[in-house]
Write a structure and sequence with these properties.
120 residues; mainly alpha; 83% helix; 0% strand
Length: 120
């Protein structure tokens, strides 16, 4: 499985599901973003780990921006652009941090398993 599928697919799924069933980005979106980053790091190659870890906050933020804008585009008009933008940035800070932490944890787990399998 290519690493891009869980890295992008799960956050998109979570954001769309939250908007469709919850009326806004709720708990499912950050959960899917964190799981997507971890799963991507688990299936990526060693050379791909860098892209997963550094890309996790970007993917998390961009998906949230696009889905929120598509669902609530009228609130981004005029002065609402700055207000909504700042609220979105503030609301995505911890999901971005958690996505990076999950990717780093998955990389550490893979490294630990690889070392253990080489030593017996």
């Amino acid at each position: 499985m290519p690493a891009v599928l869980p890295a992008v697919g799960l956050p998109v799924f979570g954001a769309l599901a939250d908007e469709l069933f919850g009326g806004g980005l709720g708990w499912l979106y950050p959960t899917c973003a964190v799981l997507g980053a971890a799963m991507a790091a688990l299936v990526a190659t060693r050379r791909g780990w860098w892209w997963i870890v550094t890309g996790a906050p970007v993917v998390t933020f961009v998906v949230a921006c696009v889905v929120d804008y598509l669902a609530h585009g009228d609130s981004y008009r005029g002065a609402g652009l700055a207000t909504q933008g700042i609220q979105l940035i503030a609301g995505q800070f911890w999901p971005m941090v958690a996505a990076v932490a999950a990717a780093l944890l998955a990389v550490a787990v893979r490294n630990h398993r690889a070392r253990r399998s080489h030593h017996g």
